[in-house]
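Many introductory courses stop at the sequence. We go one step further.
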Amino acid sequence: RLIQSHRVGQGAEAPPDVVRATMLRMANGFATGNTGSRPELAERLVTALNGKETPPVRLLGSVGQSDLAPNADIAHHLFRDTRLGAGEGLALVNNNAFSTGFAALAIADAGRLLDVLHSAGALDLEAFGANLTIIHPAVAETRPYQGLRASLERLTQLLEGSALWSPGAARNLQDPLTFRGLPQVLGSLWDTLEFVRAQLAIELNAANANPLVIVEEERVVSVSNVDVIPLAAALDFLRIALAPALTSANERLMKLLQRPFSGLADGLAARTGLHEDGLAELGNAGHALTAEARLLAQPVSFELGSTTQAEGIEDRMTLAPLAARRLAEMVELGERVVTIELVVAAQAVELRDPPALGAGTRRALELIRERVPFTSEGAALPPDLEPVRNLVRSGIIGDTR
């Protein structure tokens, strides 16, 4: 009855990988020995994972103060033929496996996106004819953030061998801030991601249930380990840090499309004077995607719908599942922003035709051109950017050396 009464989930089914991540986190929680459940529960979850059983779990309805609704869906489908012992129904539903599993996947995707943002940013620098003094080693030596150092090193690696290192190659003394501040913005995202990963690592292996069984003392104590505010707030933080990275990426692609900034034909048409849009209309798509992504950065971990649930006892919530879902959605939109950024930068690079590209940026250009062609005179926009988006999603273009 406990499981059935908590099957109040709503909406579409959660993605299969999220459900499987939830099951794995739930099994790991049982393995701590602090839930009062028999080993058979963890074993059943592992068997289901190995057998590729993925129960239908509804996406909406958890406040993140125990993922009662999605956990109840899993328990209903996997344990309907299991005679549960005392307290095991509570152990199955009263944990945050759904939030934590969902977060783990979204954070991993955010990490891949950060790698791609570096590759796209480096290609932007080539496309703009930017001033590479922005990645001088002294930048990190005089401002020793770990993320800033990591970003500078990555950009330097991607641009190794570029003609932009030659004296007089830069078009401007000072480029627009979205070009000039590339390592600072991505470095900040790097630092934030490292912090969030550390929070996640703790939560993945923690006992986040109530009550807590202390075997050594032979006691069962009432606690609030289901309050995953450390993870929920960290997910909010990561979305906030991702927003300026995506805003800057979109602004750079817009600058590349505008002749007064890039020095190239408007819209990156094949030559100056053509009465063609070139890639100009991609700017509208970039604006729309970026705006939607930025709206998802709004924090959710401080929200409280009501204090009257359970006669006022359950007067806290973290909305951790929403924080994780919004990160996943924001990363997906970010992938599409970066897809446009890469296509625009590739067009600009080939129009500018520099003497030499960096090792990483040259490989990035090759990967893009394997999927979409240069937009030549009289040609329409690439009809489908999904091949480039799949390249971004895979992370391959973020691993160019």
